[in-house]
Amino acid sequence: MSDQVMYTLEPDEQPKRWYNIVADLPVPPPPPLHPGTHEPVGPDDLAPLFPPDLIAQEVTTERYVDIPEPVLDVYRQYRPSPLYRARRWEEKLGTSARIYFKYEGVSPAGSHKVNTAVPQVYYNKINGINRLTTETGAGQWGTALSYASSLFGVECEVWQVGASFDTKPQRRTLIEVFGGKVHRSPSRLTESGKAFAEDHPGSLGIAISEAVEVAAQDPEAKYALGSVLNHVLLHQTVIGEEALLQLAKAGESGADLVVGCAGGGSNFAGLAFPFLREKLAGSQDPRILAVEPSSCPTLTRGEYRYDFGDTAGLTPLMKMHTLGHDFVPSPIHAGGLRYHGMAPLVSHAVNEGYIDAVALHQNECFEAAVEFARTQGIVPAPESSHALAQVRREALAAAETGAEPVIVVGLSGHGLLELGAYASFLGGNLEDDPLSDEALSEALANVPVI
Ligand SMILES: *Cc1c(COP(=O)(O)O)cnc(C)c1O
What is the pTM of this model? Predict the structure, then answer.
C-alpha cells in the first residue's frame, strides 16, 4: 500500500457520465402519483415545474447519461473532489480500519450541491428558462443554485427557512454575493406562506410550497429542487464514480462499508449508488449505511408510504419514508437533514434491503466532528458529522476485534459557515432532542390514505 493520503484522477480519467440506479434495480421503484387522481404522473404533469430535459432524466431508465460539455467544464474547476485516507484520525482512534473520506467541501459553495445545481441551471437555460425559484434550509442549496445561475445568466429567487434566515445572516449574504434574491419563508408573497404567521420559524416543506407556487404561476419560471428527485440523485453519482476510481488508485479492491448522511438523500445516493451497482453485479459486497438525526428519523422511524414532498400538498405523491408532510422537526443544527421525507430511490433501496439506516444524536456527531477537525484539519458541515460519528463507532468496533474493514465515508461539505453550531457544542449548550412517539404519530396522522 502506498504512503499517499490524497487520491485524485488524471483529466482523461474524469467520469463523463452519470449513473442511473433505476436501470439495475431488480424491482422497479413505485411511480409518483398525481395528487388529485392518484394515477401515475406523466411528463405533462411535471411540465409547469421542470424543463423538458430534466423531466426526461427524471423518468429515464437508461443506465448512463452523458454529462454535457459545459457542465464538465464547470466540474473541472473543483472535480475530482479529493479522496483522502484519514490516517491521523485512524491513529487517534487506534483502529485497524482503513478510513477514506470523499470531500465535497472543495466546491465553490462548500458542499456537494453544486454538482446538481450546475446541470439543473444548464438544462433550464438551454430549454429557454431564465428565472428559477427554490427553497433553502441551512443555505447550502440556495448558495449553490445562485452560483450556478450566475454562470448561465439565469435569475434565481430563494425562499429561505425562517429559522435559518434569522440565525444565519451570512448564508443569506453569500447567496446575494452570487446574485440570488432571498425571501424569508413563510413570506407574504404566496398563499402557502400566508397560511402561517409572519414570524413562524418555517420548515423546508413550507419553503418548497412557496417556491413551487411561484414557479407554477409564472409561465416563464421553473422550480429547482436540491435533493430527493431522481435527476438530482443522478447528477450526484459523479461522487461515487470518482470514489470507485480513486479507491482503486489507493490499492483497495473495494469497500466493506460505505457511509453517508441522509437528509433528502442526494449526497448519500451520489456516493452509494455506484457502489450499489457493484454490489448488485457481485463485484464488491459493501454494507451501505445512511445516517440521519434522531430528531428527524425519516428512514429509521418513518413509514414507507405515499406522501407529499411539501407542506401545502402541491407536489406529486411520492412513495418514500416519511414523518408526515406537515412534520416540523426540532431546530437541530444540521439544517440540511431536517426534511420530513426521503428520496424515493433511497427509500426503495432501503425497503428492498440493499441499504441500512441508523439515527444518531447531535452531541455525538459534533464530538466526532471536532475530533476529525483536530486530526484531519477540516471542519465538517454539521450534516456530514452524522456520517463521521457512525464511522467512528465502526472504527472503534474494529479496534476491539482487529478487523480491517475498508470504510468509505462521504464528507458532504465544510462547516466554516456553521461555527455558531460548533460554539454551542463547545460551550456545552447543545440539546439532544429525540422525536417523541406522540409527536411522531401526530405527524403521521395527516399522511394521505391512498
Ligand atoms: C444539504 C446538505 C445535506 C443533506 O442533503 P442530502 O440531499 O441528503 O445530501 C448534507 N450535507 C450537506 C453539507 C448539505 O449541504
Answer: 0.97
